[in-house]
Specification:
The protein is built from 5 helices and 2 strands, in the order H-H-H-H-E-E-H. With 116 residues, the chain is mainly alpha-helical. It starts with a helix and ends with a helix.
C-alpha cells in the first residue's frame, strides 16, 4: 500500500495538492515561525558549546580552577551543557505548544475538514 492510498483511505478523500499547501501563506508563516525560534537557538547553543570546547582546550588554568572541593570550573561548565539542553528543549516545547501547534492544527483542519 502506498503512502498516497494510505492517506486517502484514512481521510476518505484524495490527497490535497501538497505543492499548493506548501506555497500557501499560512504554511509559509508556520515555517517562518519555526525557523525564527530554531535557527537562533541552534546558533546560541553551538556558540555555547564551542566556548566550552575552546576553554577546555586553551584555558586549562581557568577550567581547572577549583571552586570548592573537587568541583572545578570545567565540571560546572560541563554540567551546564546538560542543563542548557534541557532548558532549550523546554523552551521549544512551550513555544511549539503556544505558537506552532495552533497554526499547524489550523492548516490541518483546513486540509482535512471536520474531524469525526
Amino acid at each position: 500500500m502506498t503512502t498516497e492510498s494510505q492517506t486517502e483511505s484514512q481521510t476518505g478523500r484524495p490527497d490535497p495538492d501538497w505543492i499548493e499547501v506548501y506555497d500557501s501563506p499560512e504554511f509559509q508563516r508556520l515555517r517562518h515561525r519555526f525557523r525564527r525560534f530554531v535557527f537562533p537557538m541552534t546558533a546560541l547553543f553551538l556558540a555555547w558549546y564551542a566556548l566550552y570546547v575552546l576553554l577546555a582546550d586553551y584555558a586549562h588554568g581557568f577550567m581547572s580552577h577549583r571552586v570548592g572541593g573537587n568541583i572545578t570550573v570545567g565540571l560546572i561548565f560541563g554540567l551546564l551543557q546538560f542543563l542548557s539542553t534541557f532548558v532549550i528543549t523546554g523552551l521549544y516545547v512551550r513555544y511549539a505548544d503556544r505558537t506552532l501547534d495552533p497554526m499547524a492544527e489550523q492548516i490541518r483542519a483546513e486540509l482535512e475538514g471536520p474531524t469525526r
